[in-house]
Amino acid sequence: MKMKFKQFLSLLIVLSVQLTFAQESTLSGKVTDTGGLPVPGANIIVKGTTISAQTNFDGDFTINAKKGQILIVSFVGMKTVEISGSSSMLIKLSDASNQLETVVVVGYGTQSKKKLTDNIARVTAKDIQQIPVSNVQNALVGKLAGVQITQTNGKVDGGINIRVRGAASISAGTQPLYVLDGIPLVTTNESSNGAPTNPLLTLSPNEIESIDVLKDASSAAIYGARGANGVVLITTKRGKEGKGMFSINLSQGVSQATNKRKWLNADQYIELFTEASINGLGDAVEAEDTFDFLAQGTDWRNREVDTDWQDTAFQDGFNTDADFSVSGGDANTRYFFSGAYNNTTGIINSNALERVTARTNVSHKVSDRFTAGMNLSFSRSKIDRIQDDNSFTTPLQAVAQSPLSPDRFEDGTANPNTLYANYLLAIDNSFWKTLMRRVTGKVYGEFKIIPSLKVNSDFSYDLLSQTEDAWYGKDSPFMATDGEAYATSVNNETYIYSNYLTFDKTFGEKHDINAVAGVEFNKFNRRFQSVTSIYFPNDSFQTVDGGAEVSAGSGNETDYTFVSQFGRITYSFDDKYIFKASIRRDGSSRFGKNERFGTFPAFSAGWIISEESFLKDNTTLTFLKLKGSWGKLGNAELGNFASRQLYGSNPYNLKSGLSFSQAGNDNLTWEKSTQIDFGVEFGLINRISVEADYYKKNTNGLLFSVPLALSSGATSINQNIGEVQSSGVEFTLNTKNIESANLKWNTSLNITTNESEVVSMPNNNKDIIGAFTINRVGENISSFFLAEYAGVDPANGDALYVKNTRNADGSLDKSTTNKYAEASRVVSGNPFPTLMTGMTNTINYKGIDLSFTFQGEWGASIYNSAGKYQSVAADYFDNQTIDQLDRWQNPGDITNVPQARLYGSNGTGESTRFLDKSDFVRLRNLTIGYSLSGSAIKELGMSSVRLYATGVNLLTFTNYSGYDPEARRDDAGIGEEFYSAPPARTIALGVNINF
């Protein structure tokens, strides 16, 4: 059949049109960073549609779009761009971490970094991901100016101390307020075994998008009565428009203690204690009799036993991390699902953590004006715990045992006849298990009344449920009742209703106004129960119902409420002049009825000088901003009933009764903090950015328990008396050292100084003296207060102390004495650092990435309150640190260790002998990774595969003589070490896979 010319022409036209349409509806391109390296996994979406694509490993993409359509290109950690579609595109994404337009969370809203007049420190997901630590806070160390983060000790469940711009209180809480996706979190320590737990163990780093720390009053005043110690805003990850992404991360690590101390071995122990017995008692009989007991039938004279008790207390730790996430969305619905598993075996015998977390974040655009969403997470953390540092059965106190004592007998059973209780008996015959469950959730709706005005309504809920189960078998130390079981259950729950309006509009192209106003109601409830039973038939019964007698039980319930109104307005003129004001009015059931409500205002201003005509086109000074702020904040962490007159149950002889337990104070209220902040930010040649701030924070109305006359019926009353002041300078430097096609090198450095001083005290500025510390006007908060050790008298080996008594003219008598009672205590040191720094370097070369963070602290001291047992030249039979071999032995010897005298109390007094500087520099984290390339990755459907190795606490440079300059006792005290475990040094290998 022949085709007519007309038919042929028609077919040709149709084919041409189809070909032209096909060519115009498919666009291709490449996405790279500013250095020319490809960005795999970048999302590309056609604006206003659901059409999307994703770059492959080489950064290439193809998308069904027409020329001229707007493409939105985004990637985590990089600045999103919009570009008009063309036939062949080269799209460069810049790093968002150092961009002035980076958006930070400011509480009930967001603000661009460029126009920020507050002082807010930020880290993002990429700053904390793949750091093998069991808690989120430890991943932040060294990365935030003005924020000190210290884990109490090396236990996997150890409490965390965070101080934002120094200590702002003496007797009330000092920890910041944590807000997760707008939910103020419960952070109550509910431990019953003497050592604190960290309630934020329930969070997994893999679900976190960013952490913003509000440091100054202007930023934190929106949280009013709870913002004086700073506010930590945690934002979780959310889905983004574009192709769905699946990511998985797997890692396995090993851990050891950062440091072990040197103790006497059997030879040294026998030598030192024999000499001490002769010096102290005139012969060696006491020492040899004790050696016989400690050896338990073994031949100590021939050194049959030489136990390294420290090695029994430590163990090799292991940690396994596995997490995944699925995210994506379109123009209407966005989703993020994640799950994580962590299993950590600690570096201390029988200490371990197992945690599982899950999160769902979903938002849906119901219409052009209404969006609804839900955030929901669950966490379960199981902890095998050990006793607090002050317990004889905690593993680290085993270092006090004699090396002559066997730790176990030949049959494997623990030796019960040691100098002190053998902790291995507790390991074998008891346990303490803590189970923490947390559920956090928020449902929210956002309705646009008009394009510039929207209303948000949120309902949030946080439940922290914890159970503890302790069992002690009949062979556990100090057991007199054939076994004991103890169980507790506590529920902490809080729910929050928040409703607020947000107005955001630009007038006349130069006037920008952003305003927020709202109300909030916060209700908290705590319910606690415990029960103890004794007399068990055998050790197979390990729960309360196995005991013959319930010997103790308790239960209580408490709650509090906050009701708040808040507002904030930010005005910007011509992108140069920024003014902000905020206010919050809080009312709380915690305070006296006459002082139930407080108002917390704040003001700040900024001038972006680089937008002025005389600097706008300057290629050297690319950015310059001056800023300042003033505001008032509160500290409401005073307890729920500190203002109330209380009566307690006081039964006698099976008869009920009441007794007066606390005097009431209707005028008691929160501690008040007034803060000022002045800062400058500038950028040079688009490669260097600097931020410097000076701050001063005065906190008055400190809560103190003031003594009352005995005739009042109560011993004391809570009052707001006293004032402290913290001040310092913060400096942050970010540099882009190298930016080329194959090599990128960025550095971030932060330096912080802080001085925290007591300004006034109750009772006419009377000193408040603790066991080793003092709060005195003009001195640092909780300064060390000790007798001054003066070394050793070279003539006779006596320990010497400086008298420091007052002379008639008011000066101090600096002569020495060998009588401890004649020496007066003096201010001797500061438990808090006065200088802190952190430096992070990030290097990328082709497929290789390297990052490392150094952390340093100076100015603090640590008091080893166990020193009078472990470093006193054999005063008693506790094993001694190796330095005690340098004791005085002959007239004329020059040493700092007194003569060894058994029971002689030669140098055992609490003094600066056991006080040591804790200055240190630490390689906090080191990570090296390699991203695989090649067709095999693409054929498996993967967009990227990265192998990495990472380490934490790899190197520590310090002159501190104890276990670790960051380790502190966990049962009590400020700035003390007491058989406190050092942190873990961890090395892990892992893989990241993205589909």
Automatic annotation (TrEMBL):
<dbReference type="InterPro" id="IPR037066">
    <property type="entry name" value="Plug_dom_sf"/>
</dbReference>
<keyword id="KW-0732">Signal</keyword>
<feature type="signal peptide">
    <location>
        <begin position="1"/>
        <end position="22"/>
    </location>
</feature>
<keyword id="KW-0998">Cell outer membrane</keyword>
<dbReference type="InterPro" id="IPR008969">
    <property type="entry name" value="CarboxyPept-like_regulatory"/>
</dbReference>
<protein>
    <submittedName>
        <fullName>TonB-linked outer membrane protein, SusC/RagA family</fullName>
    </submittedName>
</protein>
<keyword id="KW-0812">Transmembrane</keyword>
<keyword id="KW-0472">Membrane</keyword>
<comment type="similarity">
    <text>Belongs to the TonB-dependent receptor family.</text>
</comment>
<dbReference type="InterPro" id="IPR036942">
    <property type="entry name" value="Beta-barrel_TonB_sf"/>
</dbReference>
<keyword id="KW-0813">Transport</keyword>
<dbReference type="Pfam" id="PF13715">
    <property type="entry name" value="CarbopepD_reg_2"/>
</dbReference>
<dbReference type="InterPro" id="IPR012910">
    <property type="entry name" value="Plug_dom"/>
</dbReference>
<dbReference type="InterPro" id="IPR039426">
    <property type="entry name" value="TonB-dep_rcpt-like"/>
</dbReference>
<dbReference type="InterPro" id="IPR000531">
    <property type="entry name" value="Beta-barrel_TonB"/>
</dbReference>
<dbReference type="Pfam" id="PF00593">
    <property type="entry name" value="TonB_dep_Rec_b-barrel"/>
</dbReference>
<dbReference type="GO" id="GO:0009279">
    <property type="term" value="C:cell outer membrane"/>
</dbReference>
<feature type="domain" description="TonB-dependent receptor plug">
    <location>
        <begin position="113"/>
        <end position="231"/>
    </location>
</feature>
<keyword id="KW-1134">Transmembrane beta strand</keyword>
<dbReference type="InterPro" id="IPR023996">
    <property type="entry name" value="TonB-dep_OMP_SusC/RagA"/>
</dbReference>
<dbReference type="InterPro" id="IPR023997">
    <property type="entry name" value="TonB-dep_OMP_SusC/RagA_CS"/>
</dbReference>
<dbReference type="Pfam" id="PF07715">
    <property type="entry name" value="Plug"/>
</dbReference>
<feature type="domain" description="TonB-dependent receptor-like beta-barrel">
    <location>
        <begin position="409"/>
        <end position="953"/>
    </location>
</feature>
<keyword id="KW-0798">TonB box</keyword>
